[in-house]
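Minutes, project check-in
Item: structure for the 318-residue chain
Input as provided by the requester:
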Amino acid sequence: MNLREVYELAIRVGIEHDGRGAEGVERALADAQRSYEKLDEVDREFFDAERLTNPYSDTRIIVGDPDAAVRGIVCGIDMEVGEVLLADRLREKGRSVDLVLAHHPEGAGLTGLHQVMYMQADLWHRHGVGLGAADSLIAERAEEVRRKVLPANHYRAADAAAALDLALMSIHTPADNCVTSFVQAFVDDAAPSTTDDLVRALTSIPEYADAARKGFGPSLIQGRGSARPGKTVVDMTGGTEGPTDALDRLSRAGVDTLVGMHFSEEHKKRAEELRMNLVIAGHISSDTLGMNLVLDEIERAGAVETICVSGMIRVKRS
């Protein structure tokens, strides 16, 4: 495989598992096209043209020749300068390493993180929240995230990779789409009788079992373990967590239990007021599960050696 093929495969996998469906993805691409067409020639120079074909602005080839062969990948959740140096050290020791593959976005993927958050409105709508309310809720939160990310040193890892002649790519929302789809299907099939049963069921998934052995497995952070979970929604995609007000809307729509990667203290307090159950499946373990599902597809498509670091363990599925 070459780098472009890895990138395009990740996008395809993300679309296949996108909770918005094909119509929602096409609408997002059409919105990007309209935004581009409204710009004058001067501003078009600064438009990220990848948005016209890739609906996930946090998933990008940051450094590297798209036509370069990828024989080996060093993959992890947070791939910073230290992990780039580790990849180079592994290469020095004789391992085939061409690509540093990050889950959490770097470079242009980090600057575009807020743009994928708008998909959360469509996902909430699927569970009964009005579109107008959902759009209004996410717009404010996305702008908050945009401002928060602005001062970051976005290209530290990218500059290190370029200096060492390594490709760097991030796969964020496509992997999160995969884990959301996988865990929702798992929970629906398991049909747990209580929230304790729900947590226990999650630990049968290898990535969550590994996290539990290491002390950070799935956990009920709000609600009673003996309570019935009721309508359970897995909410793990769309950039980063949405606003606390979204819990009010989801509760009114009949959602009883949310399963997520992480919830802030503000989310916990609001959920307590609403008598809503919150289950943390695990952040790094959920990211690992999503990346493993993408890596399965990459390895099926080509002979690629994968080395996992930075919080990841490799679990292969048929």
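Outcome recorded: The CA atoms of residues 175 and 294 lie 6 Å apart.
No further action items on this chain.
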